[in-house]
Amino acid sequence: MEEHKFQVLFLTVLFCYFMYSLPRVYGFSLLPDEFGYWSYAAKAAGCDWSDIVSMGSYYSYGYSLILIPIFMLFEDAVIAYRVAVAVNFLLVFIAFIVLNKLVSKLFVEVSKAQKTICTAIAMFYPAWLFYSKMTMTEVVLMSLFVILCALLYHYVEKNKPSSLCMFVLVLVYIYFVHMRSVAILIAGAMTVGAYLLIKVRKLKPFLIVVGVGCALFGIGIVIKAVVTEVFYSGSDAATMGINDYSGQIEKIKYIFTKEGIKDFAISLVGKILYMGTATYGLAYWGLVYAVKEIVRLLQKKASQEEIAKAILYIFVFFSAIGQLLISTIYNIIPIRITSITYGRYHEFVFPILMIMGMVAIYEAKHVWLGILAIISMQIPMVFLVLYGVELRGLTAFAAYFMVGMSYVHSLEWFEPKMFYWMSVGFGAVLGLLCTGLIRLGKKKERLNVLQILFVTLEIILIILTCEKYSDIYNERAFQDTYIARMLEEMETEDRRIVFIHSGGATTIAYIQFMLRDSEIILLDNRGAIDMYTANELQDDDLILVDASCGFRDDLKAKYGRNCYNGHFALYFN
User: Fold this and answer.
1) Angle at CA 308, nearest 5°, toward 307 and 313?
2) What angle do CA 360, 362, 365 make, to 5 degrees?
3) Alpha-carbon span 501 to 525, nearest angstrom
């Protein structure tokens, strides 16, 4: 009964956070990613966004399958966006319930209340709820990974073919949600394939699984080819390759050069540092625990339930290591400080790792030696990361790509050395607090309620993070709705909407999303109004420019009226 009380408590807190967040959401926070996912939904609904889409790189289409029905059912852009956010929170709810049931299977020794609290600590990891307020793929990937783990365990434990079929289906789908989850696809295929050949020792199930998996993957590749041809035929190869394999070939070649080896080491250490700091050290505990349990379970005559645990730990371990390498390779040539300690591409495997880490702490005999080892390991990592920053002369910083390490970041003042030492120090404090509360719950089980304080701290961190990195974009999106309404009222068949792009972020995506049926003509910024022909800038046009456009005075002289709000300035006669 106590377990259910805690489940209701945490799910209620999630719902309250959802109700608090939803009215504050108006549109995109991260461009061009979010617009890229919605563009497929727009195409399915018959909207032509080709000019704006061509400005961005390729995005996997899997998440768009969720967005298509939302886009078709809700014509108002703000409502459609909020419904998509509501789906994100629904996925978090589902992931919480599935993970809690999986935890109950994995860790029999821990009390039911303790399992639920541990689940809450993992699920309230601030990055999840930060990204849940956006139409990014992170929440979908995290939820799918939790579901994959549950399906794999259930198949091995119960020998349910239906669970295996669902596992293969979700495994292929997660790849097409985001191609950088390829390590999950490989880890899943290797783990299941090895299990069927070595333990089941039947060739037929293995061939069926391989056949179904290849068929699904083949269908996905064909769809990708069609999507690429329809959406990105006008994109240049360099832009197209940013999120495609074609853009990673040079990076892989670079690894095998003298400079590449050095950059690879710095990038890898940075990602490992992020993994530990962001998870309060729990990911380190979890990886070590996985290896120990795999060795222990495979060395003895194990029951089917214990074999299921071993297979799951193998999958989680190789998924975590694989995603760590994917993130490392993608960021091997850093373009900003964030690239070195980038977190987005491997943190969706954190929930299971954090749970395993908490159980490892719960069972450890010399827990404080473990903490000392973690701190001792992270100190030289910080020095190497700072060396990488200095070596490359990096200055740009995008904290929202490494949320779990940016709680101490200030928007007004930033200095790399101070930031990294403060971040790792703050992560160590959180690790000590989390570890202390877990050990306290073990000694006096009634005091495990104190661990709720840690969940409360996570919620505070979530709110503060959103105020710094996403609320400002929603404020701008709200202001952009005013410009969109003006355009909607003034646009006619003879009156075109023309956007002069000044480079940088594709902010016009805000307007295109709100004016779904309008065609926006795209022009490049040529530095002066007289650089455009009379046909390109007509007297009746509605001219949109970025707020930073350098020839706004000339536009004001040519077009008598203007309006400035949000990201844009609008000029018209």
Assistant:
1) 95
2) 80
3) 6
- Give the residue among 402, 373, 416 at the shortest CA–CA distance from 271: 402
* Burial class of 31 by CB neighbour count within 10 A (0 to 12, 13 to 18, 19+): buried
The answer to whether 44 and 230 have CB atoms below 8 angstroms apart is no
DSSP state of 154: H
Spatial distance between the Cα atoms of 189 and 202, rounded to a whole number of angstroms: 16
Digit-coded pLDDT (tens) for 94-133: 999 999 999 988 887 777 788 888 899 999 999 888 999 9
Neighbours of 76 (CB within 10 A): 11
**pLDDT single digits (tens) 227-261:** 776 666 555 555 555 555 555 677 878 888 888 88
Residue 34 sits at the vertex; the CA angle it makes with 31 and 38, to the nearest 5 degrees, is 135
pTM exceeding the 0.85 threshold for the entire prediction: yes
CB atoms within 10 A of CB 439: 14
Burial of 284 (0-12, 13-18, 19+ CB in 10 A): buried
Tokens of 537: 């800038």
Distance of CA 190 to the CA centre of its chain: 24
